[in-house]
Amino acid sequence: MAKVVVLDELAVDSPTAKAFLTAVPFILVFAVLRYYVFAGATATRSTRSRATSKLKLPPSPPALPLIGHAHLVGALPHVSLRRLAARHGGEGLMLLRLGVVPTLVASSPRAAQAVLRAHDQSLASRPRSVCGDVLTYGPSDVAMAPYGERWRRAKMLVTTHLLSARKVQSYRDAREEEVRLVIDEIQSAASVGAVVDMSKLLSKFTNDMVCRAVAGRSFRVEGRDRVFRELIDQGMTLLGGFNLDNFYPRLAKIAGGVLVWTARRKAQKTRRRWDQLLDKLINEHDCDVAGSDQQDSDFIHVLLSVKEEYGLTRDNMKAILVVSSPIVDAHLFNDVHWHRHSLPSLEFAMAELMRHRDVMARLQQELRSCTNDRQNFISEVDLTGMTYLKAVIKETLRLHPPSPLLLPHFSVQDCEVDGYAVPAATTVLVNAWAIGQDPKIWDAAEEFIPERFSIEGNIGGVDFRGKDFQFLPFGSGRRMCPGMNFALAAIEIMLANLVYHFDWELPKGVDHIDMTEVFGLTVSRKEKLLLAPRLRGILCTQ
């Protein structure tokens, strides 16, 4: 009896699948790829034959010629990959082929631990891309650089001098000042019964916090804040968009890279704008770096003060600044529409609180009972001991991790992962979102229940700092997100003051919040978050 192979459903809503299905019929693309795929497949088989002499490859769905499994990856890849892993992922590991790139997907705590801890060194590199190399100057930054001595020095610099716990604490006054500005703006709206576009407001807060950290001041008056936001937007769009060389890496070398010329040109244009902005800022800072106190100085001052120690070139410094901008927001910018450029975790937290009014009431009770009724601001000192606030943030990160697939890893050598062979040059994805919503691990996994992190009034349960592999919003191991402390400090004080100062309602005529997501380098809500604030004790006038 003939064996029947059941193919997985085509992800017709996927931009990647649409791009592939549109491109494949064209004769030019097919002619170029036919030779390349044949050569690439031969090289892949050779690599696999060495790696699999005694071991088998991870399970994999049936693939199509040329595109592999790319047609199965939907518009929300973390969702479609969880579905595929449930059908094909033995022990939480699944091997896909996206174009000609072998891609290992880890979808369980055991698989994540094997990838991020047991084989951390073998899988600690990053895949290269044309846009990534152009935008990150080589790359020579801490986020996208391949594993090696250059990356180790960049990481040491960032974690020691830019994003250490002590350095993050030094930005306390700046955080509190920016939060006060947001609260003042909301109070003005509440006094006249106006609806507030929280997405836009939180975007401004995020952008201004980044500017304060990078350059020591807000760019609002100078108008540089708009340029700064545009450049991050353009860079994240280029890095998170459909680029052929991500699926067919050797295309970048064929005929002088003519097939990736458009992507390279767009990246170079964005980089030139970064050069103009950063060169001007660095030159301005270079004049007074000698007398600055490193602990109280901004990123640019710090880089100038340690450039001799770390052997930094001007391009090295710019690469760190370009990539540190989204990092300090925990990969917070992701889509071409400005209204989605906010702190996704903070916006998701407010959306979930509006959908769960009992949780909102309990959080308000904690915040308002732990402070003086006449207190007009909650400072970071006041946050000590506010365990339910921390539980709400942890539950938000569990359901809505900023980067649901984390940043991709890359194998630098053949290795064995949980009994399976993983060839060199394999891209590795960890589905942190799927792990955080696994019903085998979490009770009522898809429900927003902060109490799961509150034990007898104290914050408890699993933690997100990389040791508990069932909860990985910031990753784990050598490539764990270094901006975690910066992001958490901003989220805590902003959320606390939003909930403390105001009672919140949906705008008139709106009876629910749309939680539809859009995917980029991070995930955010599709629709603006519009809310009606009212001052405590004052009835809404709408």
TrEMBL record:
The chain crosses the membrane at residues 20-38. Pfam families: p450. GO terms for molecular function: heme binding; iron ion binding; monooxygenase activity; oxidoreductase activity, acting on paired donors, with incorporation or reduction of molecular oxygen. Pathway: Secondary metabolite biosynthesis. Heme binds at residue 481. Belongs to the cytochrome P450 family. This is Uncharacterized protein.
